[in-house]
Design a protein that fits this description.
single chain, alpha/beta, Aspartate Aminotransferase, domain 1, Aspartate Aminotransferase, domain 2, 2 domains, 7-stranded mixed sheet, 4-stranded mixed sheet, 14 strands, globular, identical protein binding, PyrdxlP-dep_Trfase_small, Aspartate aminotransferase family protein
Length: about 375
């Protein structure tokens, strides 16, 4: 049976990985500056992670949410401590799309409204409401288009005010650093005014932290760079270091009800073990401090390269913008220099999303290769 052909693939076949490196079937070493879409937070095959998952799967890998699971409680407590999101409640699921789907559903349940405001170049997932709130008509099927969504420009505070005052908006959903869309951010004033408008109009402010969360921005969550209090925070990618897990943090003012949300696999024992290993490692190895130090070093080197027209993002969620499309450059980096990087809907942007354990020597290796290719382009 052939695979359904929906992914354009690079001719690389990873068979193992360790730390910030991936190895193919020929034992060729690749520097991973993309982390599988920012999923690899604490490094491939981190011993804490391997031990936790191995021990858990050998005892109890899964049982349903009909029974007590102390690992869920332990994970929630650790997440509260490290994130600083005091008294929020945690609902666990399996992916970023599912997290945003549940965030939007919760907002609609609680406000009694159905319309969503989202933003140009935003990406929130591929499930029904999440994809409808995503600014990409190519992945929205007619069944998704039945959702009521208004897409506004980032920083259009008058547009947000106008839409919310119509009284039918259940949620405003935003990535505080856009991922696939190209690392754009709005102003602090915009985010803070949106937060205030939401609270004045019985509308939930949803922080999509699926890619920007778990320390990647230099704080535990990207919204923490601003003076805002989201009603719901969605998380996933870096949460399990490769094991499928997602969740939403729910403000303590929001009351739960039996049956309101549910999932078969979400919060299973194995997922919680992976999630706890990630949080413990972030804490023990002070990885958020490393994010800030390595980000500062990366940006300082990038500023010395004249072909780089713009440096976007925060922390280790960075983009290098050129005056040419970077598709061929990415191929050169993969095939000639054995370095993984990422692209975006902005075809001139090279995305950098490495494990949070990255060191200066890895950054130096990347820039040496990048400079070589940029010199070749000029010649």
């Amino acid at each position: 049976m052939p695979l359904f052909d929906v992914y354009p693939l690079y001719n690389v076949t990873p068979v193992s990985a360790k730390g910030i490196h991936v190895y193919d079937e020929n034992n060729t070493e690749y520097l991973d500056l993309y982390g599988g879409h920012a999923v690899i937070s604490i490094g491939h095959a981190h011993p804490n992670y391997v031990d936790a998952v191995t021990n858990q799967v050998s005892t109890l890998g899964f049982y349903s949410n009909a029974i007590q699971n102390p690992l869920q409680v332990e994970l929630a407590d650790k997440l509260e401590t490290l994130s600083g999101c005091k008294d929020y409640n945690l609902f666990l699921c399996n992916s970023g799309a599912e997290a945003n789907e549940n965030a939007l559903k919760l907002a609609s349940f609680k406000t009694g409204k159905s319309r969503v405001v989202a933003f140009k170049n935003g990406f929130h997932g591929r499930t029904s409401a999440a994809v409808a709130a995503t600014d990409n008509p190519n992945i929205i099927a007619p069944i998704n288009a039945q959702q009521e969504v208004t897409i506004l420009e980032l920083n259009d505070i008058e547009g947000v005010k106008t839409e919310l005052e119509k009284g039918d908006v259940c949620a405003v959903i935003v990535e505080f650093i856009q991922g696939v869309g190209g690392l754009d951010q709005a102003t602090a004033e915009f985010y803070e005014q949106v937060d205030a408008l939401c609270k004045a109009n019985n509308t939930y402010f949803i922080a999509d932290e699926v890619q920007s969360g778990y320390g990647r921005s230099g704080k535990f969550f990207a919204f923490q760079h601003y003076n805002v209090t989201p009603e719901v925070i969605s998380v996933a990618k870096g949460m399990g270091n490769g094991f499928p897990i997602g969740g939403i943090l729910i403000h303590p003012s929001i009351e739960a009800k039996y049956g309101m949300l549910g999932t078969t696999f979400g919060g299973n024992h194995l997922a919680c073990a992976a999630g706890l290993a990630v949080l413990n490692t972030i804490e023990e190895e002070q990885l958020i401090d490393n994010v800030n130090a390595m980000s500062e070093y990366f940006i300082s080197v990038a500023k010395t390269i004249p072909q780089i027209k713009n440096i976007k993002g925060r922390g280790l969620m960075l983009g290098l913008e050129f005056d040419f499309e970077v598709g061929d450059l990415r191929k050169k980096l993969i095939y000639d220099h054995h370095i993984f990087t990422g692209g975006a809907s902005n075809k001139k942007l090279l995305r950098i999303l490495p494990p949070l354990t990255i060191k200066k020597e890895h950054i130096d290796q990347f820039f040496k290769a990048l400079k070589k290719e940029l010199e070749a382009v000029e010649v």
